[in-house]
User: Fold this.
Amino acid sequence: MKMICLDNKIFCLENNSIGGTSNSDTIFHYQQKENLVTTSFSKGNVRFGNLIALHKGEHLEMIY
Assistant:
């Protein structure tokens, strides 16, 4: 399966789990180099956050 490139993509949430900090105002900026994906996010209820993930097939394994 071909890996989807997330480099320079921007996403926002449609909804979140109960008690989640992010909301629909939170903006996620993705960067990708090969299978390493990093994300910075802010706005809404979040001042600033980072995620790091490995792109494995059809899913991301994230650490945050």
Observations:
- The chain has no helices and five strands.
- The chain has a mean pLDDT of 90.
- Residues 25 and 44 are 5 Å apart (CA to CA).
